[in-house]
């Protein structure tokens, strides 16, 4: 059989920088390309770019200098996301958790009257505890013990959470104290921007053919155009980095000696511990990021990175860091490797030098893309026909997320539902499931008693 020149060319190995990227990130093995990964990483950055504006604004309410919180958000988030891509080789962005900064600003400082250096000290100690349980592989054990129906339930909870964030950003949903408080303005420019972005993403995803990976950025662009036409202005993340070092190593580590701080540290630890589990499982469920056994290669490194980022962030002036839920945007755009996270991390670091550029992207421009991602995640949930246990867990997790805007509470409800129904149906229940359910319930009770 004669081999043609075209056949020889097709078999010619990839060389140069592309070959280096392919070997380290296993692009071909994961069915992706460097172009798709870079585009997906940029999409993730656009979806989460609001955090470099919102996190300093929230932590500023606690007295933390805003430029210092901005430095911590962009620098620590960028470096941790780079580590996530290069070491864990997973497409997760790392950034301050929205549930965490609210607890620090409004509960720890606002309600309990701790100073912000003490609050950062509590964040530090919760991060040290997270590092310890990650090194001991406790979080891995919990994740690996989660049955299939709960993986789908957590994916559903994360999807609903993303959708609610989109509705909140678009002013369609009002919140009070971190909980839904009613409907907002459904006729304003932000609402129209959400509709335009969602429609654009759905159209590109349905009819775009090979252009489908740009569905998310297309939605963000469409929303940005509507925002500009409707006079929706973006908040300015700050001019320059004057005073950015004002919170460096200002945390008060002696706070660990105050018995009042112990409950707060435990609450911060529980939020991070269970929130990260829910997000990692939810983001990877029904994607090629999980192997045939339902495990996530690189998970141990990912858990160590997000715990380490919390410790580093507290030293720089921010609340706890987590695998950010907006990573779902990049995963939906085709991210399958750490190259996507490397792209996101570099863009976060560039914020340090081009912060005013973010003023041209209103946070409202991301709402439609977030709802689109949530829709696609929800439609990917296909429990086996007749699997009432999976359906019950999904419904309970989604309902609790809507009612509370708290993934840890949705996780507790889904775990309890699964454990009780499994026991009632005489199906095996892993001991870790009972233990995790009880610990979750105790941590939630402690939150209500503490705050």
TrEMBL record:
It comes from the Bacteria. One of its GO terms (cellular component) is plasma membrane. One of its GO terms (molecular function) is purine nucleobase transmembrane transporter activity. Keywords: Membrane, Transmembrane, Transmembrane helix, Transport. It is a multi-pass membrane protein. The chain crosses the membrane at residues 38-62, 68-88, 100-116, 122-138, 150-174, 186-204, 216-235, 261-282, 303-325, 345-378, 390-412, 432-449. Pfam families: Xan_ur_permease (PF00860). InterPro entries: Azg-like, NCS2. It is found in: Endomembrane system. Its main location: membrane. Belongs to the nucleobase:cation symporter-2 (NCS2) (TC 2.A.40) family. Azg-like subfamily. This is Permease. It comes from Kitasatospora cheerisanensis KCTC 2395.
